[in-house]
Structures
1.
Amino acid sequence: ATPQGYMCPSSLENRPKRTIACTHSSEGMREELTTIVDLGGKIIDVVIEHPVYGEFKGQLMINSRRDVDEFIGRMESASAEPLSALTEGVHIHTIEADDKETLDLIEARLSEKGILLS
């Protein structure tokens, strides 16, 4: 189950995946997500590590600007804070793309924008 509905295992693609650590303010969320999808990536999830409760994980399944707009719209209409608000902006995403080169490009662009944690 995902925020966009259920996904059948047979429809899942076996594409390269990577885990990346990021940081930004709530205002930087759109820039981060659109950077990833504009370069051909899909954001599978978001994970934070809370010092008391441990790991929190949210399924995102965002792979287009439309998905980004819908996700941010749901956040705004619910007056919800992103999970990363609990960790001063620090969070982890699992992303996937058609190839390793695309994942490398996404990391490089996020690094240029000061979003990628090194």
2.
Amino acid sequence: PGDMRASVPTSVRVVLADKSGQAVTPDQVTFFAYRPSDKSQDFSAPMTDMGGGRFVARLAFPLYGHWDWLIAVRQDADEYTTGGRLVVAKP
């Protein structure tokens, strides 16, 4: 997403593809948000399949500041993850 602000709903999108660049349709995709300074604010949201390997979650971060994020993709018994850190601005 672009500019993210605390308590303002925004869409988080991801495109999933295999090694050859073909879109994948896993069983489940989940967005996780972790607040490094206050784990009581951690949350997760299921991501909706938009087709063509595109997934979206509509969410609002409750507080401004630094957040770690993780996207978990499940297919059968396998799970793949990717993550990073983002900054949420004051509302």
3.
Amino acid sequence: AAAERAVRAAVAANPDRAAPARRLLQLLIETGRFAEAEAQAAAILSRWPDEVDTLVNGGVLAHRAGRLDVAEARWRRALALEPSLHRVQLSLA
């Protein structure tokens, strides 16, 4: 709980930086809070649409939630930005 409070404080203190927001996303994934993580991924992507790691993780989260169209769109965007992402190519296959 203390770590999450610290990360959320960092996000609030640094709204123009993606790194704290990505760390919060990672923390939510690590603690199994997938619905919150997907909302965080969407928030990051609305601000930084070319955030490749978030596109990949957001695709996994959307796929997990049964939102296959969103997952595919996120993964295709990630591949457009970084074509060497073989794990994403496999996910789309």
4.
Amino acid sequence: MTSLNEIYEELARCARLYNWHIPDAKAATVQMDHKSHVFIDEGQIQTRAEEKRILAHELGHIQTGTTHAVVSPCDIVSRHETRAERWTIKRLLPYDDVCRAIRYGCRTTWELAEYFDVPDELVLKAIDYYTCACGMPLCEGLDGCI
């Protein structure tokens, strides 16, 4: 399971991190001179789980090479956001670990969110991604699970 500290450590190896007020966003990644710069507005972040998800998402942009110009067409921005979010899901909620958590008793989205220390909404996105986009069952052989 990836911790918030591990996300910070990985970001420190590949980007500069700034605490900066960002109107209409909690974080943003900027490429300048072939270097990544991650801006996070800590004043807008409510929980440690939210901070972990946001920073992992920005790291996902860097790791997948999906940064884009502010004036990029909507379809490009959408594809880049999807790739960064899928990277985040795979990193914070790996398929095998989610299945293992379900087998060991996590039966609700909030239990999975608490177990992985991520927001509930990311658990819902992960379930949708694994089951719908990938066609992978989460509860094979279990009754009454998610």
